[in-house]
Amino acid sequence: MNVKVPKRNNVTMHQVAERVGMSIQTVSAVINGKPGISAATTARMLEAVSELGYRSSAVARSLRTRQTHTIALFVSDIATSPLAAMVSAIEEAACQRGYSLQISHTHNDLERERHYIQQAVDRWVDGVIIVAIDEVLTDFTPLTSAGIPVVAVDRVPAGQAVASVALDNRRVGVLAAQHLLGLGHRRLGLIAGPHRLSIARDNQAGFAEVCSWAGATLVVSDREGDWHAHSGYQAMQRLLEGIVRPSGVFVASDLMAVGAMHAVYDAGLSVPRDISIMGVDNIELAAHVHPPLTTISQPFGEIGAHAVEMLLDRPDEATTVRIEPQLILRASTTEYKEEHRQNTQPIAAGT
């Protein structure tokens, strides 16, 4: 996407006032950071300032003193329940601090993400919270060069000096393996997320480490997931067709776990009688599928509060906060029983 912004010169404060339907006095008050102006009025006026190309040292001063009270939030895929819950948590935390949130959905499109990042620079937002599309390819340089603080959420950028807050994903894998092994399962399966993300790699590393230490058999699906249910369904089909059928399976997201459960049912098997399944995130749906899904909680409220606090109170600190995961026990996992031993043959494709 090539976005060209026409150059505008000699724009006056009077033109800005006409664009937004405000008095010159109100526009001047916003630009000079005077108190008593609502966040909504400030955001509307500064958007017009950006569109018209109006520049003044007073605008710069107002932005340096955080008078816009606007935070930009970029989300890679808001269609997934975990990220939607995270957006809600961030919006609530920002609102409690008196800030409005501008939400942009990047649709996992790097060009669109770059465009939104440049828009944030042009519109002088007070800060950016971002669920990056790619930990390596996403470029925060335009923001940091403009002095705009950034907090990366969920995905920790590689080699870029920005703050971040994320679940301790290696610990997630450890908890999952410990739970299934504790139930007596020794043939364990893994359906991972996209390996280009450290989230998925860390989950797998923690899970595999505990399996190796315990001497358990680990079967990793050769079809990685994309966080959506259909990919979990397809990955579980591949596990069921394998030489060794696991009796317990760890799936890297709740939505993928729901898809995996459907694949088990379609194969004529049962959860958890034949295969125990657990997920990650603890989305609302997890408690309402049949059977209710054992999962590892991602505390979205805590993550949102940390992200906003880091952005507003510690804007110059490029630190990483790791959030501790928590095991949520439900009915989709159960103790290994002898009938699991009798149900280990692979299922032919198309069965």
Class by SSE composition: alpha/beta
Low-confidence segments, given as residue ranges, are: 1-9
How would you write the strand order of the largest sheet? 2-1-3-4-5-11
Average per-residue pLDDT, rounded, comes to 87
Helix content: 40-55%
Number of helices: 13
Which fold name is given in CATH as the topology of the domain at 169-298 and 327-342?
Rossmann fold
Summarize the helix and strand pattern as letters: HHHHEHEHEHEEHEHEHEHEEHEEH
What is the name of the CATH class of the domain at 169-298 and 327-342? Answer: Alpha Beta
Q: What is the 3D shape?
A: elongated
The CATH H-level homologous superfamily of the domain at 169-298 and 327-342:
Response regulator
Beginning-to-end CA distance, first to last residue: 45 Å
Number of strands: 12
Strand content: 15-25%
* Rg computed from alpha carbons, rounded to a whole number of angstroms: 24 Å
In the CATH hierarchy, what is the architecture of the domain at 169-298 and 327-342 at level 2? Answer: 3-Layer(aba) Sandwich
What's the quick description here?
This protein has helices at 13-20, 24-31, 39-52, 57-64, 81-96, 110-122, 141-145, 169-182, 198-214, 229-240, 254-266, 300-313, 338-342; strands spanning 70-75, 100-105, 127-130, 150-153, 163-167, 187-191, 217-220, 248-251, 276-281, 294-297, 320-323, 326-328. By secondary structure, the chain is α/β, with parallel strands linked by helices. Helix 7 (141-145) links the parallel strand 3 (127-130) and strand 4.
